[in-house]
Automatic annotation (TrEMBL):
PANTHER family: COLICIN I RECEPTOR-RELATED, TONB-DEPENDENT OUTER MEMBRANE RECEPTOR. It comes from Nitrosomonas eutropha (strain DSM 101675 / C91 / Nm57). This is TonB-dependent vitamin B12 receptor. NCBIfam families: TonB-B12. The keyword Nucleotide-binding does not apply. Belongs to the TonB-dependent receptor family. InterPro entries: B12_transptr_BtuB, Beta-barrel_TonB, Beta-barrel_TonB_sf, Plug_dom, Plug_dom_sf, TonB-dep_rcpt-like. SUPFAM superfamilies: Porins (SSF56935). It is a multi-pass membrane protein. Signal peptide: none annotated. Residues 46-151 form the TonB-dependent receptor plug domain. Keywords: Cell outer membrane, Ion transport, Membrane, Porin, Receptor, Signal, TonB box, Transmembrane, Transmembrane beta strand, Transport. GO terms for biological process: monoatomic ion transport. One of its GO terms (molecular function) is porin activity.
Length: 612
């Protein structure tokens, strides 16, 4: 896309000036939501000392997102690597750390596979999600292992207004895509519930353009389809005694085809169920008990021939005590238990392990200062004691501008695949250790808010694939430097959300790769999302630009930079019905986020929604 062409398109968007009630005034997308992930306690987003992004249900529908990776792609600090389109393996790199350095929670329950170490987010049903909280920076001192780059917590849909409320959606588009969803929610004085079902089916396109010696190590020029059926349930009850209980359930079943010499079809089932009880024995003390289990089952085939099966189970128990010491001091003390178990047709020498953690956090507000201190001790069955800590300080320079500084340490135990997978694992791996320092500034003004965050992370014993030994190995050191700039505002009726990321994820280990860029991380990324209501129409666009990256430690396989533009529009038929349309990759850009794996070309989708 030429610079003149891009300027003309931008001028056309901003030049529209029709009289209509401001959509951003009718629905305030610049509000200050309450978040819980940053400190494990309720806080307004602008009061947290961490770098936080919240994606609400309104954002999901406004952007017409068709997947979780749609929502996360280009968000500040996040790189996405997808291997061939919808439903295919999608990994996240948060602030330049590894794909298994992101802790993913669903309704407070730890997700992700104990075998691979990362969560299969491409399977999560976007229509059954209420909101997503993204916390950037280490959180091991609160959550234990995995939270090296940050935490992403997904909340399933819940009830809002009293009485019964159904919602429906149905749509389809390019690549033979059909999708639909239905939810039913209800609430009374003491109880509430939400039930949901979602499904998607697509013929897809050829996932991989590799060869027998590169990429997917096969040549299968066919369409690689995907289908998914998911269901969720979430309910709660408030007792007169003050006890609050909540239970949630999520099941997603995905069947996807891809290109592979040994395996090219997978049935992947993910399931989570958990419950939370909250009670205050007396006013300053609040107890929260959470228990849950997540499962991931993978059956793998070569065409119709069964090849392998993996079952990974994670059991979690958390007991948290929040004690209000004074109106300006909150003390949090708790303990977490995590148990991982693996069962598969491949013979792992070790199939289970536990992790016990105890943690404490002290949040203090004093005049213009705010302080958050945290300390945690983990006892890992395989790797022994691990101590992590965090300290964050905020100073309100004015009523609208605040400065922040922070330090945090984190650790990550090797996954079962990295340690024990037959013919691949390395049982001599050490846990990864990391520490991060960060400086930031946040501000708000009449029509929006902004933030700047500068950070540096050092990771010792970083685990990566070693081509010389054909196995994972600790590569000594990595240094990641980054800058994130975020601006959310409204200009003449246009809601504009934009962010800019600069990243320098450098391999600092000894040897030939010293100074190289870590794989699949883009050094620069820019995203701008703009929306406006024009009478009964709502129009919007997403502009995403990412610089080149490398697909290997040696930096020999380069992925070109790219610019992608999506357009969308919707028509409000009445207060209950609306029809939406979206054009993805408007200029049909050919790009890759993982070497040899194709991404969708120009494509069209339409959706009809009913929401009273």
């Amino acid at each position: 896309m030429s610079r003149n062409h891009a300027s003309s398109v931008l001028a056309l968007w901003l030049g529209i000036n029709l009289s209509a009630v401001s959509w951003a005034e009718e629905i305030n997308y610049l509000e200050n939501p309450v978040v819980v992930t940053a400190s494990r306690t309720d806080q307004a987003a602008e009061d947290t000392l961490a770098s936080v992004t919240v994606i609400t249900r309104t954002d999901i529908e406004r952007q017409q997102a068709r997947s979780v990776q749609d929502l996360l792609h280009g968000i500040a600090g996040i790189n996405v690597a997808n291997t061939g389109g919808p439903g295919k393996l999608t990994t996240l790199f948060l602030r330049g750390t590894e794909s298994d350095h992101v802790l993913v929670l669903v309704d407070g329950i730890r997700m992700g596979s104990a075998t691979s170490g990362f969560s299969e987010i491409q399977n999560y049903p976007v229509e059954l999600i209420d909101r997503i909280e993204i916390v950037r920076g280490p959180r091991s001192s609160l959550y234990g292992p995995e939270a090296v780059g940050g935490v992403i917590q997904i909340f399933t849909r819940k009830s809002g207004k009293k009485g019964l409320k159904p919602t429906l959606s149905f749509g389809g588009g390019s690549y033979g895509t059909i999708n639909g969803s239905a939810t039913l929610s209800g609430s009374s004085e003491h109880a509430w519930f939400n039930l949901g079902i979602s499904g998607s089916d697509t013929n897809g396109f050829n996932a991989c353009k590799g060869s027998f010696s590169a990429g997917c190590f096969t040549v299968e020029p066919d369409k690689d389809g995907y289908r998914n059926i998911s269901g969720s349930a979430r309910a709660g009850y408030h007792f007169d005694s003050g006890l609050d209980v909540e239970a949630s359930f999520l099941h997603t079943d995905g069947h996807y085809e891809y290109d592979g010499g040994f395996i090219n079809r997978t049935k992947l089932a993910q399931q989570m169920f958990g419950g939370t009880a909250r009670y205050s024995p007396f006013e300053p003390w609040r107890i929260t008990l959470t228990m849950g289990r997540s499962n991931e089952d993978s059956d793998n085939f070569k065409e119709k021939m069964f090849m392998t099966r993996y079952h990974a189970r994670r059991d979690t128990i958390s007991w948290q005590n929040d004690i209000t010491v004074t109106p300006n001091q909150l003390l949090t003390i708790g303990t977490d238990y995590l148990y991982d178990h693996v069962n598969s047709t491949e013979k792992f020498t070790t199939t289970s392990r536990y992790n016990w953690g105890v943690f404490a956090q002290h949040q203090i507000s004093l005049a213009a200062h705010k302080l958050q201190l945290s300390l945690r001790h983990d006892d890992n069955q395989q790797f022994g004691s691990q101590v992590t800590g965090g300290a964050s300080w905020g100073y309100s320079l004015t009523e609208r501008v605040r400065l922040t500084a922070g330090f945090g340490s984190a650790f990550k135990a090797p996954t079962f695949n990295e340690l024990y997978f037959p013919g691949f694992g390395n049982p001599h791996l050490k846990p990864e250790d990391a520490h991060t320092v960060e400086l930031g500034a946040t501000g708000r003004f009449d029509r929006g808010n902004w933030s700047l965050n500068l950070y540096e992370t050092w990771i010792d014993n970083l685990i990566s694939y070693n081509a010389a030994t054909f196995a994972p190995d600790n590569i000594d050191k990595a240094r990641i430097q980054g800058l994130e700039a975020i601006l959310n505002t409204e200009i003449k009726g246009w809601l504009i959300q934009t962010n800019l990321t600069f990243l320098n994820p450098e391999n600092r280990s000894k040897g030939a790769n010293r100074g190289n860029i870590l794989p699949r991380r883009s050094k620069q990324a820019f995203r701008i999302d703009a929306s406006r209501q024009l009478g009964n129409f709502v129009v919007g666009a997403l502009f995403l630009a990412e610089a080149n990256r490398y697909d290997d430690l040696a930096n020999k396989q380069q992925l070109d930079d790219y610019v992608k533009v999506d357009l969308r529009a919707e028509y409000l038929i009445n207060s209950q019905w609306r029809i939406q349309g979206r054009v993805e990759n408007l200029f049909d850009k050919d790009y890759e986020t993982a070497a040899f794996f194709n991404q969708p070309g120009r494509s069209f989708f339409a959706t009809l929604r009913y929401q009273p």
